[in-house]
Amino acid sequence: MGTEFIDISHAEEGLKPHVYNFESTQHLVEITDAASQDYDAAADLVTGEWKPGVREWLVLVCVSLLVAMDAFNATVVLPLVPHLPVAFRQPLGVTLWIEASYLLANAASQPFFAMLAALFGVGPIVLGAAVLATVGTGVCSGSVDLSCLVAGRFVQGMGCGGVRAISLEMIDGAIPGGQKIRFHGYVTQVWIFGAMLGLIFGGVLVDHAIWSFYGGFIFCALSLLTIPFAVDLKGYKRMPKCKLHDLNWLAAVLTFMGMGCLLIGTSWGGTLYDWNNWHILVLLCAGGVAMLALFLYESMRAVQPIFSSAVFYSIPKLSVYTGSLLHGFLISCHLLNCCLYLILIKCFSSALTGLSLLTVVSPSLVSLILTEKVRLLRNPCVSPWIVRVGWMCNTISTVFFVILDARTPPQAWVFIFLGTGIGHALLVSGYHRCLHNASKETQPLPPRIRRRKNVSPSYILMYTILRSWGMCIAIPVSGAILLNRIFGGLREERIDPNRHTDKTALSDDAEEQLRRMLVCGFRILWRALMGVSALGSISSLFVR
What we know:
69% of the residues lie in helices and 4% in strands. The chain is mainly alpha-helical. The chain has 19 helices and two strands. A hairpin with a 2-residue loop joins β1 (2-11) and β2 (14-23). The chain has two domains: 9-248 and 303-446 and 453-540, Growth Hormone, Chain: A; 249-302. It has a two-stranded antiparallel ribbon. GO terms for molecular function: transmembrane transporter activity.
């Protein structure tokens, strides 16, 4: 019993849809077709002769604009976060959800859009996702209060998560196998550039925070203009309606609801409510039950599990995906909390903070360019060592974060930030190469998985989903660690913890006392990040 699958393959005259049949047990986020492995092998033989045509460059331009939009929207809010509690007169823990809601929707929507693309084709879905991101950007730009802004960011995150997932399929469909790693490298470089642009744009426009979202309209408009030329917008019925129930909608919903409840409960615990308050207990229990139900359903009942055993069947692959989750958590924590440190402890302006954070992001761009140019770094045997050195750099730099306080000289924190950026750069470059090496592995699958024919897991898509979840989890968790320490200190000093963080309402002594509590909270957080870096270092030992 099979279902129809429409693939957009490379051809001399551009992108053409092809229909294949495959078994209904195919993984939802596995981008595959009946001839993909033979096609990639043939493409590798002629990789030196193949040159991209006009249509392929249109696809690359379109995908680049889409991922730049995602990166810009993900980082533009970070320099604004320390100022938003004063602007909206809300606690910092609540305003953190302006960023967390975007990342939550981004991570949760990627499996949904992968399934929708399986039903209706790439063209209509990527256009719909871009329109959804544009609508969310419009809501953010017209926001007058915090609830409206959070809702707009959630819609924006859904659209950007969709374009992030579908853009990977666009590259896989348009570029032959031997060239995919190069073009995926271009797309990753554009994502980093968009993140850098978001940090600068958000920092410069701090006095007009809503204006910072207007920059997203540029990417939205350019993306909507190029999509009709890059993909076929005709809808295709990839699956009969009787097979609609085979798609794993329930698992996607359980993932979103479970993680959402757990993160909200973690964010509110100890700040808005005590940890033993029934609101927190209900949220944490509901999230735990949803995740347990997800595990049982995926293991026993799901026809097409989201987290397929075909993706996680070996220890090296499992190590790569564990590292992607931890790396996403670490980079999101570093960007957010370095921003909070510079503004709340060092009293930097938002514009200078945005520029300072480039020391964490920009080395990744240089690393990817060097990896593409230097032949030695492209050796498959070198990629695992790049990952290990990257985790080592992150671990060492995170240890030095503990010394940061109000008196730390600029040359010290710049050096620490730069070391962190180099570590992240090596991880981005190393994992990028390891994923493409894994997709070419010929290691035999276990018998239970071997029975599934024509299965070719999308390693890059799974890596992107897990890294997105890591970035999402980092915001509420790091905020909870920091704020619980501050609220505990305020209660010990018998200061009202519900007081707004407007510095004009605090005396000089109270402001200095609050700054000392922030430094103590950051030191607890840095120690937690040391543990995350150590786990990443251990996982990198099994990467091949």
